[in-house]
Write a structure and sequence with these properties.
Radius of gyration: 18 Å
Structural class: alpha+beta
Largest sheet: 2 strands, antiparallel
Low-confidence stretches: none
Order of helices and strands: EEHH
Distance between the termini: 27 Å
Mean pLDDT: 85
Strand order of the largest sheet: 1-2
Number of helices: 2
Number of strands: 2
Length: 81
């Protein structure tokens, strides 16, 4: 049986965008496609990857997490409802 399920790849895991009737532990085959022909950029070299990562870290340092920000539980963070 083949079906199409839209998913988001986060933290190394594919998370379905809607409810699916696949039992836990079931093995599946994924065919990856990107909507509207959008594909992730390719990084040609290790130097380019390091430059991009340094830029991300610098932006994160300029926008620190507020000390009084709420702390979410794991269940709250992964609540899909």
């Amino acid at each position: 049986m083949a079906s199409t399920i839209n998913a988001v790849f986060e933290h190394g895991v594919f998370r379905p965008e809607s409810q699916c009737d696949i039992p836990d532990g079931a093995r599946v085959v994924l065919a990856i496609g990107f909507p509207d022909g959008v594909e992730p950029p390719t990084v040609a070299s290790g130097e380019e990857r390091q430059r991009i990562l340094r830029g991300i870290v610098e932006r994160m340092k300029r926008n620190p997490w507020p000390a009084d920000a709420p702390h979410f539980t794991r269940d709250e963070m992964y609540d899909c409802g």
